[in-house]
Amino acid sequence: MTQRTYSIGEAARLSEISVRKLRFYSDQGLLPPAGRTASGYRVFTDDELVRLDLIRCLRDAGLGLDAIREVLTKELSLVEALKLRLETLEAEIAAQRRVASALRAALRSPQLTEADLRRFLTMTQLSRAERRNVVERFFEKVSDGINIDRKWVRQMIETTVPELPDDPTPEQCDAWIELSSILNDPSFIAKMRANASDAWDRDAFDMEACQAASDAIVREAKQAIDDGLEPTSNTGSAIARQWLEASARLMGRQPDLDFRNWLRAKYAQHDDRAARYWELVAIMRGQRPDSSPNREWAWIVDAMRHHLTD
Questions:
Q1: At 91, which helix (H) or strand (E)?
Q2: C-alpha radius of gyration, the chain, whole number
Q3: CA dist., res. 43 & res. 40, Å (int)
Q4: N or C: more exposed end of the chain, with fewer CB within 10 A?
Q5: Phi-psi group of 16: left, alpha or beta (phi > 0 → left; psi -120 to 50 → alpha; rest → beta)
């Protein structure tokens, strides 16, 4: 059966595109005409109109001319082409979300400078390896010159390197920006060094015993929270005394007045950014900021502050 033929103007009208764009596709080899008139004008058939519809769909999906050409010549399947486009589009969306998050963080700065904006943009675009380097540098500064078990340091790095999914939420991007700021703050590093020195700069420090004691106190706090008890309750005081005694034992000291006064000063100077660190890591992992054990340790710290002031 002989197919109906259309002039370039008719084909453009039926396909609802401009003659100029149809001519462009034809000149690029994507839409060769079915033939030409005696005067040299291009003519098209229904087959070309179907092909033109596919070209338009692929262009609407964001595919470039080269990818479309590969689909039309069967060098690339339609499914493969769309998968590639989707991957590219998702990466672009993720990048734009990171940029938007950086702009939000920059706008929250009371006295925004160009340097601040560059820092925010850079932090949101770091790869996982680069984020890991930020954490590693933090622990290197904290542990430098302190007798810390290197195995423990490696374990902390592995368990605390913040993860960002391929398609992070604005909250996750914001969490990374805030966390990177904390990890690069000299005052926070100095406080963490002081805490590390208290724990490690002694003849012996039993990390396994410390972990066991921490796990036990967290279980006690979890039960108290589940029971609806406040840190200022009698149970809170009991748990605080339990942790005071465990802390003294782990540090080779007696839970006497001197140790109590020393511990009171430590908790009075407690940097809330230490807890915020874990909250931000939780957010980046798609968890609630008060997920366990963050919630329990916040409760324990409040209980210790209250108990030590009695």
A1: helix 78-108
A2: 32
A3: 9
A4: N
A5: left
- Find tokens 């702009």 and name the residue: 103
**What's the CA gap between 119 and 3, in Å, rounded?**
63
- 67: tokens are 């990818």
Helices (H) and strands (E) in the chain, counts: 15, 3
Q: CA-to-CA distance for 115 and 291, rounded, in angstroms?
A: 34
Question: Amino acid letter at 146?
Answer: I
In order of 47, 116, 186, 280, the CA distances from 110 in angstroms are: 62, 11, 21, 22
**Residue 223 in tokens:** 């039960």
Q: What is the mean pLDDT of residues 211-224?
A: 91
What's the CA angle centered on 223, arms 278 and 310, to 5 degrees? 80
Give the model's confidence band at 203: pLDDT under 50 very low, under 70 low, under 90 confident, else very high.
low
Count CB neighbours of 221 within 10 A. Answer: 27
Cβ atoms of 303 and 239 within 8 Å: the answer is yes
User: Is the pTM of the predicted complex or chain greater than 0.70?
Assistant: no
Pick the closest to residue 3 from 73, 53, 50 (CA basis).
50
CA-based nearest residue to 225, from 302, 286, 282: 302
Give pLDDT, residue 185: 92
Tell me the residue type at 122: T
DSSP secondary structure of 19-60: HHHHHHHHHTTSS--SEE-TTS-EEE-HHHHHHHHHHHHHHH
How many residues make up the chain in this entry?
310
State phi, psi for 287 to the nearest 5 degrees: -105, 170
pLDDT given at position 308: 82
Distance in angstroms (rounded) separating the CA atoms of residues 285 and 251: 33
Cα 67 to Cα 59: distance, rounded to the nearest angstrom: 10
Contact predicate 217/242, CB 8 Å: yes
